[in-house]
Amino acid sequence: MANWIVLLVSFACINLSLSVRELEYSTPQSCKDLKQRFNINQDGLYYLSSPTGVVYQTYCDMTTAGGGWTLVASVHENNLYGKCTTGDRWSSQQGGSPNVPDGDGSWSNTVTFGNAEAATSDDFKNPGYYDITAENVAVWHVPNNERVGRWKLTSFLRYHTESKFLRSYGGNLYNLFKQFPVKYNAGSCPANHGPSVPVVYDVGDASFNHKLFGPHVRGETEPGFITFRAINHEKAAMAICLGVKPKGCNTEHSCIGGGGHFPEASPRQCGDFASFDWDGYGTNAGWSASKQVTEAAVLIFYR
Asked: Closest Cα to residue 75, out of 276, 266, 211?
């Protein structure tokens, strides 16, 4: 905590003598900016500013693969038995309905929620999600309810892209999902999946990643990728497939952040972790994911 307090006080002292234009430039707008311009190299919570002057707190990973990674979101399943209910902010809190095909629309709107320090206990989205212009993403899997100082220690899977793919999609996921809406009936499988991007593992590896999902899922996916806007057999859309590229169309078992309607067995197939429990909660059998990945928050970073 002390690191960002000292930093904020330093900015306040420096900024007293600056014009408005200079003030906007002096305030870091990403963790990469913070690292490069202010030589900050310690992981932790810091204050950033959006281009419009909104100040917000988030976590900066300043050491992995060169550092400068900004936490912009987390997806946390608070109740796998309560599909598309309160707390499922990335899919729908209103239930699954064909009349609300994109659910809460969080992947492509500017609504923010949660706070950085509680990102493993609740869903989180800050202004950086739509305001930062980035090139790559990183994903951490951290057990639910871990304190921020233990995230790195307890994360069991971490991976990032290196291809600068976001340059082709408007510089962030907000713009990517404008092109590939997470919305029921926005396309068909497999023709209308979004991009699949190779990842580099910082913790874990492709084999371990694959085994977090059930054997049926492993038969239909290729590990070592992150995939955006995957569509299933019934034309329901999921936002992010976790370290895998779909080869089949049962994407609801390894992808998170579904849109507003899942035609098959709704509401059994709905919510932020749409159908990770199809063959039992945490069984890692059939189509079910392991308890380890089901009971972990997915933290999303930009750089």
From this structure: 276
